[in-house]
Amino acid sequence: MKTPADEVGMKTPAKKVTDIDDLLIEILQRLPTKTLLQFKLVSKQWLSIISSSDFSIFHTRFVLNEGSLKPSVLFLDAIYRKPPTKFVFLPLNRDTKQLPLLDFMNAPYITIIQSCNGLLLCTYDYDNQSYFICNPVIKKFKMISCPMPPMLEYHLVGVNLAFDPLKSPCYKIISIWQEVLLDKDEENNCLCRMTSNFSMDIYSSETDSWNVSKIKFTSEWAIQFDHAVFFNGAIHWDSVAKESLYFDVETECLMPMPMPKPSRRYSGSRYFGESGGHLHLAVGQNPGYRLIFRIYEMLVDYSDWFIKYRIDLEAEMRSINLKPPYCDYDIFCLVVRSDEDKGDSMVAVLQCGTTLYYNFKDKEMEVRTDGPKANGYRYDIARFRGCEYFETLSCV
Q1: Closest to 232 in 3D by CA, of 198, 280, 199
Q2: Is 70 exposed, middle or buried (0-12, 13-18, 19+ CB in 10 A)?
Q3: What is the value of pTM for the model shown?
Q4: How far apart are CA 251 and CA 235, in angstroms?
Q5: Is 69 left (phi over 0), alpha (psi -120 to 50) or beta?
Q6: 159 beta partners
Q7: CA dist 355 to 78, 126, 289, Å?
C-alpha cells in the first residue's frame, strides 16, 4: 500500500537513511552478528552491504575496538566426526543455545586446531595433511595445502594461524617442520631420528602463496608447535620445558620465551592461552577430593611469569557431595577467562561431566552437571583443549 509520501514522490526519513550507504553501514556495524545475519533478508541492498568483505572487516574492527567481541562458547569435542553432527560445547552466555553446523564442508573427521578472532583453522584426513580456514557464521571456507618438502627429511609438527583484523583483513598460516634423520640398523631396518633442526613455511592470504623454508632454526626444548596462541601480534607455543619460543608475525623474528616450572604435583590438565590482554598458563591437580589450581601470568616485557592466583577448592568440592571413585573428578579441560566487568574467572571440566565456573573476583563457584563425560571418549581425552569460539563476519 502506497503512502501519501509515495504518491507525491517524496522520500520518508527511513527511505532517505537506507539510500545513504555510508550512514547505513555506520548503523549496521553497531549490531550483533546474529542480528546482521537476520537483516540480510530485509532487502537486496542490505544483503549486498552485509555480505561484502569491506563491511565484514568494518564490523569486526568495531566490535573489537568496543570490547564487545567475546567468546560465546567453548568447543570441547574438537573432532567433528561426520556432518551434520554437532560439536560438544559449553555455552559461555545464556543466549547461546546452538551453533552453526559445518555441514557446508563435505568432509568427516574435521578437527579444530585453533580459533583466532572469528576464524577457525581446521584439518581433516591427516594422511594428506589437508587444512582449511573457515567461518561457520557465514558458512565460508578455504582449503590450504601445506607444501611438501622435496625430500622425506622433514616431519610436519605444527600448523598455526595468525589473524589480527585490526591490522589487516588478511591472515597468515605458519607450518613448522622438524628434520628427520634416516638410518638403518645392523639388520637393515629403517630407523628415524628426530633432530633439533626446524624449518618454517609462511602462507599469506593476501598473495595466496607460500614462502617455503622462510626461516630455519634450532631448538633443544620440548615445544608443542601444534598448540599455539596468537596474541599481541605473535604466535606463542606452549612447552613443559623451562623455555619456549614465540614468533613475531610482522617482523618475522623468532624469540625465546621463559616458561614457568610448576611442581610435579601440577601434572594434570593444563591451559595455555590469552585472556584480558595477557598470556596465561593454568595448571591443576586433583589429590583425592580436592582441586588445586595455579594461574600464571606473563609479564609485559616477557622476562618472566608470576603466580596470579592459587586456589584450593577443597571446601567447594565437599559441598557438591562427591562420591568415589575420585578419579572421575580429574580435570580434563581447563580455561582462564577475563571480563572487564566480572573480572577473571576459570572454567574447569571434570571427567564426570561436572563443570566448575569459578570467579576469582567474587570467590564464588557455579556448578553445572550437563558437560560431556570424559569416560565416553576414552583415548581421545587429549584433544580437549577448550577452543574458544567467536561469532564474526570475518572473510576467509
Answers
A1: 280
A2: middle
A3: 0.85
A4: 12
A5: beta
A6: 175
A7: 17, 31, 15
> What residues have CB less than 8 Å from 349, skipping those under 6 apart?
76, 90, 331, 332, 333, 334, 355, 356, 371, 372, 384, 386
Cis check: omega of the bond before 150, within 30 degrees of 0? no
CA dist., res. 232 & res. 89, Å (int): 27
Query: 308: exposed, middle or buried (C-beta count within 10 Å: 0-12, 13-18, 19+)?
Result: middle
The widest CA-to-CA distance across the chain, in whole angstroms, is 97
- Phi, psi (deg, nearest 5) at residue 19: -80, -15
Question: Which of left, alpha, beta for 104 (phi over 0: left; psi -120 to 50: alpha)?
Answer: alpha
In this structure, are strands 278-285 and 292-298 parallel, antiparallel, or unpaired? antiparallel
pLDDT at residue number 375: 59
The predicted pLDDT at position 84 comes to 47
d(CA 92, CA 347): 10
For residue range 319-368, what is the model confidence (pLDDT) as tens digits? 766 555 555 567 767 888 888 788 899 888 877 778 888 899 888 888 88
C-alpha cell at 275: 585472556
Give 310's strand partners: 294
Matching residue, cell 598458563: 281
Distance of alpha carbon 77 from alpha carbon 298, whole angstroms: 28
The contacts found for 36-42 with CB under 8 angstroms, 24 or more apart, are 36/393, 37/137
At 355-389, the pLDDT tens digits run: 888 899 888 888 887 766 665 555 455 555 677 88
- Tracing cell 592470504 back to the chain, one arrives at 205
Separation of alpha carbons 259 and 15, rounded Å: 59
**Angle between helical axes of 44-51 and 21-28 (0-180°, round to 10):** 60
- Tens-digit pLDDT profile for residues 180-215: 887 766 666 777 778 889 999 999 999 999 998 889
Q: What is the pLDDT of residue 182?
A: 74
Phi and psi dihedrals of 20, rounded to 5? -105, 95
Q: At what angle do helices 53-65 and 44-51 cross, to 10 degrees?
A: 70
Mean pLDDT, rounded, for 313-319: 72
Neighbours of 327 (CB within 10 A): 11
Q: How far apart are the first and last CA of the chain?
A: 42
- SS3 label, residue 354: coil
